[in-house]
Specification:
The complex is a heterodimer of chains A (210) and B (224).
Chain A: H1 11-17, H2 19-30, H3 33-49, H4 60-75, H5 77-81, H6 88-91, H7 95-101, H8 113-122, H9 125-132, H10 135-145, H11 151-158, H12 162-186, H13 202-206
Helix pairs in contact in A: 2-3, 2-4, 3-4, 4-11, 8-12, 9-12, 10-12, 11-12
Chain B: H1 3-17, H2 23-35, H3 37-56, H4 64-75, H5 77-94, H6 96-121, H7 125-134, E1 136-145, H8 146-150, H9 155-158, E2 168-171, E3 178-181, E4 199-207, E5 212-220
Parallel strand pairs in B: 3-5
Antiparallel strand pairs in B: 1-2, 1-4, 2-3, 4-5
Helix pairs in contact in B: 1-3, 2-3, 4-5, 5-6
Classes of the chains: A mainly alpha (210), B alpha+beta (224).
Amino acid sequence: MAARTDPNDGFEKLAEEHLHPLYSMAVRLTRQPQEAEDLVQETLLRAYRFFDKYERGTNFKAWIFKILKNAFINRYRKAQTEPATVDFGAIEEGLESLVDGVSPGTQAAPSDPESILMQGAVDGEIEGALDELPPEYRMVLLMAVVEEMSYKEIAAALSIPIGTVMSRLHRARRLLQGRLVEYGRSRGLISGRRESPPVVDISQFRRGKP
Amino acid sequence: MTYEKCVEIRELLVAFLDDELPCDMSHGIHEHLERCQPCARLAKVESRFTIVLKTRLCRIEAPPEFAAEMRKRLKDPESMAGGARADAATAGFASPRGRVRYALVAAVILTAVAVPTVEILRPGFYRGMTDSLTGVRSADGVLICIECERLGVPIDGQRHCHDAAHHTGLKCPKTGIWSLVVNDASLPVLGDPGKRGAEVTVRGRFHGDIRYIDARSITPATGT
């Protein structure tokens, strides 16, 4: 007669391995350490209760992050029902127009986008911009950048198509870049607007005026 | 280079750099970047930006005490379930929203237990409380025909008054002051002349200034 296996066998090891990633995501989402601890506890408790539903051999990280996401949404349901109000159209004007304005062969001009990004990053502007991202964009960005999850894993964790992962990641990065470009302008790192039209102006194209 | 192509490429640039695109699509973007200087420049910046993000947005480690506590609980999952449940309850109570939720639950439980208990111990307590809040109260008296009373007709005679224009009133046996009782169809006793002279308790809204009672119920006098 075969010995009965514990349905929660192996949970401890898997959960422990993901403790820090879970906390990291939780604290970035809630922005408060105490809330993050509560969220992680709730996630682990739910994961333990439903561990028998987890298919062995599949991606545990995507599975437990999905639980974290759902727990977060449940806790902050009211805020979640509010649609994202970020004006992505305006954001698009940032980095691309800067890049387009740099002539081929130009060496480290004052408006060098890389220098601007680095300066903003060094001054901690990214963290502030990250907090301003709607949670659904923040989660995608953090999963891709910090947790180095594949798009497929992110799609599984957030229950969204891969195309949506790409789109959210693209927009999240644009938002952060937009913030750094603004910062560069305020610090005088960008030498004003271009005089000549850009080679490709995405923002104008999107408004139907190429 | 068309605008459409560049727009399309730029939307896929991050996925391309993350090596998340199918081979044929990736190959197409690679070819485009070889020909399009602005897009190639943007690709370089995006690539650099990924490094910037990875450098700046590091994983935030859980506090050692919290991690230790979680590890301890994970060693004994059953206790973790209980402990986490208890902690979740405590944590819920600690947050403002949690406190409101607990207060509401406590209020519901308290009401469910206290209301029937008080009614058992002091029958009519809630009716009295509601009456005082709504202005409803009770008074004892004798039912009379107001018009006949004015004419000095004795109560036995009033019992035979069938004049539809006459009104029923409540007379205080001590002071002799009477009040008009509204002739509500739901209180048939008011339309029954045979009931005149009966000692009753009228419950309703009293308008002392105009000696008018908007009656809710008329029952045989309780003597209170």
